[in-house]
Amino acid sequence: MSSLIRKVISTAKAPAAIGPYSQAVLVDRTIYISGQLGMDPASGQLVPGGVAEEAKQALTNMGEILKAASCDFTNVVKTTVLLADINDFNTVNDIYKQYFQSNFPARAAYQVAALPKSPRATTTEARVPQLLRPVHLEPMLCNKRSHRNEKSVYHNEE
């Protein structure tokens, strides 16, 4: 049985972890990105301006982590958006569409009772199949046992 590759992904261009976790972890060929708040990486504080500015900053932070992993938003296959108030859904959706412009990832969005640092919105659970050889098409499977007959192919459109 072969062992999985496991590597921590980190960048100073996104907020440092506020607990015992990594910004992102590469496991085999899939990158798991921790939840991102609308925090300024330099100050560690939530950005002012409300839910729209927080959503922009959270997604900008995610983008910096993706860059550190040699990926971008087109490589993301799953996200979860957590909202302090479901009434902010349309505002966050408008911001989200600025970062994910085509080939949208699967997504869940829901209201939660509370979030760390009391933001209005956060993104979490981003899953990114990383292309180890960007020139070639690579089959990407998160769980080979449950998807034996399926082959999903992801590629960079360069």
Automatic annotation (TrEMBL):
Where does the record say this protein resides? Cytoplasm; Mitochondrion; Nucleus; Peroxisome
Give the GO cellular component terms, alphabetically: cytosol; mitochondrion; nucleus; peroxisome
Q: Which terms are listed as keywords in the entry?
A: Acetylation, Cytoplasm, Hydrolase, Lipid metabolism, Mitochondrion, Nucleus, Peroxisome, RNA-binding
Q: Which GO terms describe its biological process?
A: lipid metabolic process; negative regulation of gene expression; post-transcriptional regulation of gene expression; regulation of primary metabolic process
Q: Name one GO molecular function term.
A: RNA binding
EC numbers on record: 3.5.99.10
Question: CDD domains of this UniProt entry?
Answer: YjgF_YER057c_UK114_family
Q: Which SUPFAM superfamilies has this protein been placed in?
A: YjgF-like
UniProt catalytic activity: 2-iminobutanoate + H2O = 2-oxobutanoate + NH4(+); 2-iminopropanoate + H2O = pyruvate + NH4(+)
The family database entries (InterPro entries) matched by this protein are listed as: RidA, RutC-like_sf, YjgF/YER057c/UK114
Q: Does the keyword Iron-sulfur apply?
A: no
Quaternary structure, from the entry: Homotrimer. Interacts with YTHDF2.
* Family, per entry: Belongs to the RutC family.
Q: What does the UniProt record say this protein does?
A: Catalyzes the hydrolytic deamination of enamine/imine intermediates that form during the course of normal metabolism. May facilitate the release of ammonia from these potentially toxic reactive metabolites, reducing their impact on cellular components. It may act on enamine/imine intermediates formed by several types of pyridoxal-5'-phosphate-dependent dehydratases including L-threonine dehydratase.
Protein name as it appears in the record: 2-iminobutanoate/2-iminopropanoate deaminase
Q: Which organism is it from?
A: Eschrichtius robustus (California gray whale)
